[in-house]
Automatic annotation (TrEMBL):
Subcellular location: Membrane
Membrane association type: Multi-pass membrane protein
Name this polypeptide is given: Nucleobase-ascorbate transporter 4
Gene Ontology MF annotations: transmembrane transporter activity
Region span, Disordered: 33-61
Record's signal peptide: none
Similarity comment: family membership: Belongs to the nucleobase:cation symporter-2 (NCS2) (TC 2.A.40) family.
Pfam families, alphabetized: Xan_ur_permease (PF00860)
Compositional bias segments (type: Low complexity): 33-48
UniProtKB keywords: Membrane, Transmembrane, Transmembrane helix
UniProt superkingdom: Eukaryota
Length: 580
C-alpha cells in the first residue's frame, strides 16, 4: 500500500496571477494526490487510453470543479446594469418581493396594538417609505451591495410584548392605545439603533469578521434562508388552491420555459416573478368573483379572497410619512433591552444576507471593514424606523437576495430603482395598497424559491473548505443541526405554552432569550464560530480546512484590486472615511 499525502504543496499558487489562483490551486491539490500513486508502465498507459479506460482519454473528466471567489454565470454584476427599461422592470420586481414581508409584519403587530385598517395602511406605507430611504443609504454608503433594507420578523417578539403590556390596560380607546404602544416601540428602537451603530461604525463587527471563515459563514448563510421555512409552504397551504399553482408557475417560468423556448433574450427566467404573480392573481380574482369562497370559513376567506385585506379602502390617496407622526417617543429600559437583542439578531441575519448578495452579485468576498460599515448603516436604518414609527426594525431582505440568484441580475442600480418605487408608492397610498392586497399564499410561494436560493449560496461557500476533514464535518453538521433544533424548541414551546422556555419574573430577560434562540441563523453562527475558533485551532491544517486561506487576501480593503471596484464609496469618500 502506498501512503497518500492529502496536503497540497505550499508553493502551488504563489507564482500565478490572482485570476488563475483559485482554479490552479484546487487542481494542484488533486494532481498532487494522484501523483503519489505508483507509476504505470508506458505500455499500460497507452493500452488504457486506446480502450477508453472508462474516461474516453480525457484526463480532466474526473477533475473537481475549480474554486471561484466570484460566482460565474451572473449576467450583470454589482457594477453593471441592464438597459434602463429592463432595469425599471427588475426594480419593480424587487419592490413586489419585499412588499410581502412589509404587509405580513405590519398586519401582525398593528391589530395587537389596537389599530384598525386605517392604522395598518398608514404603518405599511410608513415602513415602505423608510425602507426606500434605508435601501438607498445602504447601497450608496453601506456595503454598496444590491440589498434591500426592509422590515424584519426579528422585532415581532419584543414589539408584541410591548403591545400586550399591562401598562395600557387603563386605555379604553383603541386609537389612543395604538399611539401609546407605538411611541414605546419607537423609543426602544431609537435606543437599539445606537447599539447597532456603535457595533458597526466603531469597528467591533470588523474585529468579528476578521476571524470569520467560510466554514463558519456557511451555516450562517444556509440557515438565513432555511431558517425562514415557516413562512414558506405552511403559509402557502393556508390556501393551497392559490399557493400551489403559484409555486408551480414560478418554477415553470424560471426553470423550464427558458430551456423550451430558445431566445437570445432572457425574458421568462428574469421576469418569472412578474409573470407568476399576474397569472395567479388573475386566477385568484376569478375564484373570488365566481363565489368559490362565499361559504368558506373566515380564515379561508381571509387567505384566499382578493378583497379581504381592507387596505385599498383604508389607504389615503396621498400621504407623506414624517418623523414623530405618532407623537413623542417614550423610553422604558426593559423594552430597550429587548429590542437591542432583536437588533443583535438583525445584525447576524443581515450579515448572512450580505454574503449571499455578494455571491449572486458576482462580487469578491466582503472585507471586514465593509461588513462593519454595512452594520453601521443598518443602525441608521433602525434609527429611522424609530423616528418615523414603523413598529419594527430593519434588516437586509433575505427574499430580495434570493431574487438576485433567480434573475442572475446583481445590479446595484436595479435595487436603487426599487427603492424609488418604495418611496413613490408609499406616498401615493392607493396604488401601493392595490399591490399590497396580493393574496399572501402567492407571496409564500415566492418565498419557497427565493429563500432556497439564499440557502444554496451558503452551500456554495463549502467549495472553499476541505470536506474530507472530520473537523469540518463535525462543525458544519453540528452547527446546522443545533441551529434548527434549538430554534424549533423555542418556537414550539412559545406556541404551545404562550411563553418561551425561559419564563422568569423579568419580562425583558425572557424576551431576550426568546428572540436570540428562536433565530436558527443566530444559534448556528454562535456555535460554528466558537467551534471554529477553539477546536484544534493550533493545528497547521485548520486554516486550509476551514477555507481561511482563500479569504485571506480580502481581509484588507486594498489587498485586491477588485475590492475597490465593488465596495468603494462614491465621490471618492474613502479618502475621508478609510475605516468605514
Amino acid at each position: 500500500m502506498v501512503t497518500v499525502k492529502t496536503s497540497p504543496p505550499r508553493t502551488a499558487s504563489l507564482s500565478l496571477p490572482s485570476f488563475f489562483t483559485s482554479s490552479y490551486t484546487f487542481h494542484s491539490h488533486n494532481t498532487y494526490i494522484q501523483t503519489q500513486t505508483p507509476p504505470q508502465p508506458e505500455a499500460t498507459q497507452k493500452k488504457t487510453m486506446a480502450s477508453g479506460g472508462g474516461n474516453s482519454g480525457k484526463s480532466d473528466d474526473f477533475q473537481p470543479f475549480p474554486v471561484k471567489d466570484q460566482l460565474p454565470g451572473v449576467d450583470f454584476c454589482v457594477c453593471t446594469s441592464p438597459s434602463w427599461p429592463e432595469s425599471i422592470l427588475h426594480g419593480f420586481q424587487h419592490y413586489l418581493v419585499m412588499l410581502g414581508t412589509t404587509v405580513i409584519v405590519s398586519s401582525t403587530i398593528v391589530p395587537l396594538m389596537g389599530g384598525g385598517n386605517t392604522e395598518k395602511a398608514e404603518v405599511i406605507n410608513t415602513l415602505l417609505f423608510v425602507s426606500g430611504l434605508n435601501t438607498l443609504l445602504q447601497t450608496f454608503f453601506g456595503t454598496r451591495l444590491p440589498v434591500v433594507i426592509g422590515g424584519s420578523y426579528v422585532f415581532i417578539i419584543p414589539t408584541v410584548s410591548i403591545a400586550l403590556s399591562s401598562r395600557y390596560s387603563f386605555l379604553t380607546d383603541p386609537n389612543e392605545r395604538f399611539k401609546e404602544s407605538m411611541r414605546d416601540v419607537q423609543g426602544a428602537l431609537i435606543v437599539a439603533s445606537f447599539f447597532t451603530m456603535t457595533i458597526g461604525f466603531f469597528g467591533f463587527w470588523r474585529v468579528f469578521a476578521r476571524f470569520f471563515s467560510p466554514l463558519a459563514a456557511a451555516p450562517l448563510v444556509i440557515l438565513t434562508g432555511l431558517g425562514l421555512y415557516s413562512h414558506g409552504f405552511p403559509q402557502l397551504a393556508r390556501c393551497v388552491e392559490v399557493g400551489l399553482p403559484a409555486l408551480i408557475a414560478l418554477i415553470f417560468f424560471s426553470q423550464y420555459i427558458p430551456h423550451l423556448i430558445k431566445s437570445n433574450r432572457a425574458i421568462f427566467d428574469r421576469f418569472a416573478i412578474l409573470f407568476s404573480i399576474v397569472v395567479i392573481w388573475v386566477y385568484a380574482e376569478i375564484l373570488t368573483a365566481s363565489g368559490a369562497y362565499d361559504n368558506s370559513v373566515s380564515k379561508t376567506q381571509f387567505s384566499c379572497r382578493t378583497d379581504r385585506s381592507g387596505l385599498t379602502s383604508a389607504a389615503s390617496w396621498i400621504r407623506v410619512p414624517y418623523p414623530l407622526q405618532w407623537g413623542r417617543p417614550s423610553f422604558h429600559a426593559g423594552d430597550a433591552v429587548s429590542v437591542i437583542a432583536a437588533s443583535f439578531v438583525a445584525i447576524i441575519e443581515s450579515t448572512g444576507t450580505f454574503i449571499a448578495a455578494s455571491r449572486y452579485a458576482s462580487a469578491t468576498p466582503i472585507p471586514p471593514s465593509v461588513h462593519s460599515r454595512g452594520v453601521g448603516w443598518l443602525g441608521v436604518a433602525i434609527l429611522l424606523n424609530g423616528l418615523f414609527g414603523t413598529g419594527t426594525g430593519s434588516t437586509a431582505s433575505v427574499e430580495n437576495a434570493g431574487l438576485l440568484g433567480l434573475t442572475r441580475v446583481g445590479s446595484r442600480r436595479v435595487v436603487q430603482i426599487s427603492a424609488l418605487f418604495m418611496l413613490f408608492l408609499s406616498v401615493f397610498g392607493k396604488f401601493g395598497a392595490i399591490l399590497a392586497s396580493i393574496p399572501l399564499p402567492i407571496v409564500a410561494a415566492l418565498y419557497c424559491v427565493l429563500f432556497a436560493y439564499v440557502a444554496s449560496a451558503g452551500l456554495g461557500l463549502l467549495q472553499f473548505c476541505n470536506l474530507n476533514s472530520f473537523r469540518t464535518k463535525f462543525i458544519l453538521g453540528f452547527s446546522l443541526f443545533i441551529g434548527l433544533s434549538i430554534s424549533q424548541y423555542f418556537n414550539e414551546y412559545l406556541l404551545v405554552s404562550g411563553h418561551g422556555p425561559v419564563h422568569t419574573q423579568s419580562t425583558w430577560f425572557n424576551n431576550v432569550m426568546q428572540t436570540i434562540f428562536s433565530s436558527p441563523a443566530t444559534v448556528a453562527i454562535m456555535v460554528a464560530f466558537f467551534l471554529d475558533c477553539t477546536h484544534s485551532y493550533w493545528h497547521g491544517s485548520v486554516r486550509r480546512d476551514n477555507g481561511s486561506h482563500w479569504w485571506e487576501k480580502f481581509r484588507s480593503f486594498n489587498a485586491d484590486t477588485r475590492t475597490e471596484n465593488f465596495y468603494s464609496l462614491p465621490a471618492n469618500l474613502n479618502r475621508f472615511f478609510p475605516s468605514f
